[in-house]
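User: As part of a screening pipeline, I want to sanity-check one entry by hand. Below is the sequence and the SMILES for zinc ion. Please return the complex as structure tokens so I can compare it with the automated output.
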Amino acid sequence: MADLVIRGGMVVDGTGAPPHVADVVVGDGRILAIEHPYTGAARRSLDARGKIVAPGFIDIKTHSDWTLPVVPAAESKVRQGVTTEVIGHCGYSVAPALPGRVEMLREYLAPSAPWLPFRETTFAEYAETFPRTSVNTIMQVGHNTLRLMTMGMERREPKPDELTSMQRLLEEALDAGALGLSSGLFTAPGSYAESAEMAALGQVLRRHGASYATHVRNESDHVFAAIDEALAVAEACDIRVQIVHLKLSGTNNWGQAPKVLAAIDAARSRGLRVHCDQYPYTAAGNPLRNLLPMWAQDGGVETILARLAAPAMRTRIRADIAASGLTSFGRIPSWDAVRIAISPHHPEYAGTTIAEIADQRSCDPIDAVCDCLIADRGATRVVIASMSEDDVREILRSPTVFVGSDSFALSPSGITGTGKPHPRTYGTFPRVLGHYVRDLRLLSLPTAIYKMTGGPAAALGLIERGLIRENYRADITVFDPETIADRATYDDPHQYPTGIETVVVNGIIVVDGGEHVGTRPGHVLRRSSRGVG
Ligand SMILES: [Zn+2]
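Assistant: Here is the complex for your manual check:
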């Protein structure tokens, strides 16, 4: 007898093909049959008439390694229909954490993971002891973390033995099943690496058949050079590259989305394996200290905070930002565009813009930024409205750019339910399907679902996942195409979406009648020579 039959829904299978009505039969964690009608027996029958039955969504770009150990039920993700997450992006990973360097890693990730307990661990131990969660997890090791473990925050090239150390740590992570390496060349210490260092690590990836995901060196005034750098590393090493959260930041770069997409298409047509992802919002999220000029980010947190206390340094920061905009984000229309998301030591600041804080204190915005960072021990996280809606739409329409939230799994109750995190945390997938597909008709439903399922599954090499197909793993999301919508806003972000009715992970129901039932059937999916599974 089957475990579950989902009856009469419109199956959108994840390949981009149009919907067809069928019964989807689940048993032993797999899709046993797709028939119309199914006449066999099943322990549970769900009426899905009028609903879409899709593969579970793959969030190819996340930082849920910062939260899953404290919120293993991954509420903000599964309630969006997400069944698999790729973690460890942008150069940040929680492992390896080597003896004597744990505190450094904890301090480094404080703006991102203030709630996470850090401990000494190899990558293999980390993967082995990862908690049981409601979603499947695919791990990456971060270049910034490897650099921290090997050479701290030092701004220089690695010595040969240090490069060998980084290669060895990368190799250990890959042997433990990591998908590949992520980089965050936009911020220290990743930003201290030259392309040659990335290529040396890329050679290790090539030997293992692993891939490279990069938050490129610059997403504003030098975005084209930064994308070229990522493509060149992939080409030199013959590896797959994923350019994450593709965007054009800074008012003077707005309108160039067609040119960026053309550059990536050209690379693809000359044979490069290049993929991209995007979140459907005009604001980004980042630690506040990353907005400072690069020189001001040098050193550990103590060094940075001591620098920010000095009036002469503030004058220099003010002049640099006036001349060339914010690091990574370029020129913003005003300081109203930078809003505090999470301030662990001053939670009352959450939701307030830098312009408002400057106004309240009758001070200059740069003084407000420096004062906030000092008061918050450098741990403040912000949301920055730095993109244009036209560019967001142009990139979203491209069938070759996948959907990735760039967020972490949260729960609205408990320690992660605080502050004003970016609304993408709760809203990414339903926002695409409701706002952009149904309301604006920017792209078709099968194309949007392909960008969330079959497309990323093929790019990642997932074994028998990402499609509604017989014998595939039963990761399934059922939603109402008429009511699916994001509800999370910048002012009120801890809001679940509407319209997601059933979510099945590895054949087990996690969301039933729109509610999380507390099951945690997720697996850690490891890369091997056969693929990722
Ligand atoms: Zn990033």
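Points to compare against the pipeline: The mean pLDDT is 96. Residues 90, 184, 215, 244-245 surround zinc ion (CB under 6 Å).
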